[in-house]
Fold each of these.
Amino acid sequence: MMATIDLYAVFGYPIDHSLSPDIHVRFATETGQSIRYDRRAVTLDEFADAVTGFVEQGGKGLNCTVPLKEAAYTVSDHTSPRAQRARAVNTLLVCPDGQLYGDNTDGSGLVRDLTLNLSVSLSGKNILLIGAGGASRGILLPLLEQQPARLLLTNRTLARAEQLAAEFADFACIEVQPLATLRGTGFDLILNATSASLSSDLPELPEGIVAPGCLCYDLAYGSQPTAFVEWGLRAGADKSVDGIGMLVEQAADAFELWRGIRPQTAGVITWLRNRGRGSGGGSWESGLLPAANGHF
Ligand code: NAP
């Protein structure tokens, strides 16, 4: 008898360079699951119809990336507490009755990469989070749950950071300051959750914000070390890494939600990083990948 092959996909726009199909097919192979995982270019305007069509086609689960995470929250019939807090969904599960359950695995993926893969404890640390877009929305709660001593949020458009901090005010006090005023204030962890790296750009980072032992972490990743990863190394960070580990970890959470089985991630992260080395150099820290552009 033929095994049933369950259908999954990632929706986003642009989507050509998404690594999610590679990651999920590898998870499926290693856990003995029969899945097909498509990559589909879907704009915001097309999203609701595309989801309906996917469910009618028998699809079992979706990943949603830029610019669809807030729309994915809106189309969900039920959502996890962390998705409700973020008001954004990156993983949809099609339930047996056809209803959509929305989750947000970005923050848990980041925290797992930091704490398990990079062995960084966040408890009692001073954290600077740069950016107030969809990614920051998803990672704020899981970061705060690690009980840092201080979480300072900043953004090019400060009003967006203030709005985001206000949304989390019942959970924790999040300080908001313009980046330029932080000169000389050292942080143990600096997270770049802006999309600046996608255009080889950098936020305007002041001097003196890298404390001894600091980890600089760019949520973005690319075929070259991102501008932020390079800045971190120049500024004296102990380590400066890109977001490939987060990408694999958030995918593992989605896979577990869909298939009920937890895939191993270390081998997949190494596999992706080695693919990068094969295409012209790189390091664990910079996490080079061929033909990747930061979308997932
Ligand atoms: P988004 O919602 O479009 O938000 C973009 C953010 O970047 C805003 O805060 C924006 O500031 C800021 N920004 C853009 N260009 C900038 C520049 N030149 N200088 C300073 N700030 C700039 O994007 P997102 O969904 O939050 O994604 C942010 C990044 O995280 C992307 O690189 C994405 O690929 C990455 N990401 C990675 C993973 C992973 O698994 N590794 C998961 C999620 C996201 P304004 O408000 O002033 O416009």
Amino acid sequence: MSIKIEPLDGPMGALVHGLESSGRLSDEDFATVEQAMYDHVAIVAPDLEENVPWMRDFTARFGPLVPHVLDQYHHPEGFEVSIIARNTGTSESRSTAKPAGAFWHSDLSYEKKPSDAIFLYSTQIPSKGGDTLAANMYLAYDGLPEKTKTRIENLTTTHRWGWNTGGATPTLTQEQLDTHPDVVHPVVRRHPKTGRKILFVNPGYVMRINEVGQQESDELLEELFEHALKPEYQYRHRWELNMLLGIDNRASMHAAVDDYTEPRRMLRMIVGCTEKMGIAA
Ligand code: SIN
């Protein structure tokens, strides 16, 4: 066994030592890495040489990768890999008012089948800033008052692409829009691997709670977002070059920090949904 897992201090995250971006990781070592993702919600592997086919193949072992709707940013070496670049002065650099992902969200929650996990790999980082924040939504659920847990148990939400993203998402083409209608998801999910309950709401894509009136929906969502974004549930990921960050997207939400002007470039792989979505029993 060449892989060692070192949990980070704080509400989530573990360092993965011994991962190399060449060759195929043994099934035993992969199982250790995968378990670390479920146990710690995020995993961090430093010092991995850039190898796009390896990134694609390694991350696809967590579940089938899905290409992002913004197909203009697909990587030339594989459409399952997206380029998230800013201030790089190249045609792949995004020009939205705010950086991609600079709002709290859980990837693909605006799709019928949200993502199980996402991976980001840094190929260019600013000398200051450009961190990624993540919130542990197991802890957010666990920390809710019992009466709120009971209140939200059977509620559902409507999610929409670009709903509250503050200029961080480009407008979809009509074709992209047609394949992305609003979707409904439970407020509370149960993680199929850990059995734990998750508060599955995010300010970026959740429009409303379906079973209550508009005002009650607005108030309850505000209460849930404010609760989930308490600092004690948050992890701040400080990037180093050639670092891989994996996030269990079911059990978290994340946001890119919009505080840099130098070039920043990430590769992103999104693992699709491998479960049937439904209200947590
Ligand atoms: C994302 O939300 O997918 C990107 C996050 C980041 O670039 O830090």
Amino acid sequence: MPIQPSNLREALRKIADPDSGKDIVTAGMVKDIKPEGDNITLEIELNTSEPAFQQKLSEQIEAEIRATAQENKEVVAAVTVKFTVDSRSANKRVHDAGNPLPNVKKIIAIGAGKGGVGKSTVATILAVGLARQGAKVGLLDGDIYGPSMPTMLGLHQEESKAEDGLLLPFDVHGVEVMTIGKMVEPDKALIWRGPRAHSAFNQLATQTKWGELDYLFVDLPPGTGDVPLSLAQLLPLSGAVIVCTPQVVAQDDARRAVRMFQQLGVPLLGLVENMSYFVADDGKEYDIFGKGGGEQMAAAMNIAFLGGIPIHPVMRIAADTGEPLRNWAINETMSTALDTVCDNLVSAANASNTDRPTLSIS
Ligand code: ADP
């Protein structure tokens, strides 16, 4: 008996796409399957025409099909794998598929190589900071492993509301906010992986009734694993901001995050160095973690440095009490630092122009 189509798909599902981490069926790379008697011809779409990669993938596909057929006592004669190449970057493909959020001019991801560096803090600062300057801003908390926006923005007492079958964003501190943390118990969100995380994030992003927004910031989960990678591919991003701390030991992780966005074809708008230094009440600066490490790394990787944010206990308190605007009242050094990061981000986002797909370069 020839191999059954369901078994054939099962075999193909065992093969991972190295770009997205998903299996090649889920990643949409299998464009056609033609069984003719005991022979099988497959058409696979790749974003590379590299012969060595194609050869390896072809061998892997054939091996998986034959192994599955053998297990099920089915017959497979010739396996022919044909490749077509779609060389657009992942982000260009998402752009070309049409903007699922037509009200939003620029969608900007905030990423970090690892947790705890202040990614959510910086996402909050950028969102609230740009709203203070008069921009229309949204913030999507996609950090499904540890959604911190309910606390950082003081959403615990807010009730979730829906209208026309869509979720209404929370309107706080001048920003439209949606967070996975208000939809599920945070400890449940922590166990989400792969497809569940993917679809929860997709729903949160596309089934929220966003107003007309100049910027939608997306706080991604930390790291460069499957989940941040696949979430970063769901929305047509105008760019990404990387957050890191100054220490040399933190830089390897930040570099990986930069590479992840480069691989996806998402423009790097710049890097923010958080916990850069400490400013005491007398105005004296203390260098705790090695100020400037992030700036040097940004220069070495040829991406813009958007500025450094000092470490200050009131920043931690403002996050714990859900009062982000307090950060601007700490002292002048702090408010200047926060505004500089916001201004530099606006300049970088305007220069990159990726909200107009015809001008985007992949
Ligand atoms: P991440 O999103 O990278 O995991 P968070 O933004 O949640 O990191 O920050 C981790 C902790 O550090 C939080 O308690 C936050 O309030 C605190 N924090 C972040 N940046 C600063 C800063 N510049 N000064 C003081 N505390 C900070």
